[in-house]
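Weekly puzzle thread! Below is a chain. First person to post its structure in token form gets bragging rights.
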Amino acid sequence: MKLPCIIALATLLLTGPAAAQLQIAPPATIPSATPEKQKPKPPAPAKKEAAPAPKPSASPKPAASSKPAPSPTVIPAPPTDNSNADLVFGAYQRGQYKTAFELATARAQSGDPKAMTMLGELYSNAMGIRRDYAKAAEWYKRAADAGDREAMFALAMLRISGRGGAVDKGEAVKLMASAAKLGEPKAAYNLALLYLDGQTLPQDVRRSAELLRQAADAGLPEAQYALATFYKEGTGVAKDPERAVRLLQAASLADNVDAEVEYAIAMFNGTGTPKNQPAAVALLRKASRQGSAIAQNRLAWVLINGAGVAVDKVEGFKWHLVAKTAGKGDPELDKQLSDLPADERAKAEAAARKWLGSK
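Winning reply:
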């Protein structure tokens, strides 16, 4: 039985949407939330950063912090013709890591590459056994040498972060490329970001777009969102707003919050898709509940101004105050809040405190 592989995208992930110039007078559109141009510093863990000062949308670039990349999390898929390997994976799924370790050790000794990858996962993430990156790298390498694409990617993540051995970006790139050729979408995605970054590899936005397309076609939401921004801005591909929206929709269905925000804005404005403001507001509500400060700001704007939805100033200012705590302030909404009757302002402030306290 082919089971899904889940792995932390440990390097060069796109940050959340950056702020765009707000327009508070009741126009028919709301501003986009596409990430701004930022110079990346690979490698880096997945991280949501506070939005910078408002400015118009710009082409996406992955941003990064200086912290080391976290170890990858691999759930290897057992071979379809080996029911014993399913027992290993089943124990892992149930959180029985010691049992998974014992079963995987026996299977690995008989030459099963999936069991080797499982041992690498258990050692790398201290599941049922003490964390040991060196042993994790050893098992990943044995599995990679046997042709396991998930092990190739996991080992690449260790090599690029210098865990379990010295940093070796050259080997990491080779492993990613091999895994991508074998159809590993996370390898294709991270390799695309290395081509976009232009530090580890020569910058090649066309090649980056090709790899993002490969990962997006395989259903990776992060790749779908990134490729959507490429089509929106014409980065490495011809501009295609309609295709961008289709990709945003796909990533939204997989609960990618950044894609939800952009897709909601596209539907609200009718950009690349028929205008559907009720659906857009519903999606903004969802993304707001998921913690997107950009969504909270846009939702506040539409609720306060009655754009595509009935006016609800208490709820709108609640979301404005919540967004403000995440660094997404809005001077114009602050002014409108100060003009609100005292009883309504008190209700909005109480609602914001309640929401923040329940997080």
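Puzzle host: Confirmed. Bonus trivia for everyone else. Residues 342-357 form the longest helix (16 residues).
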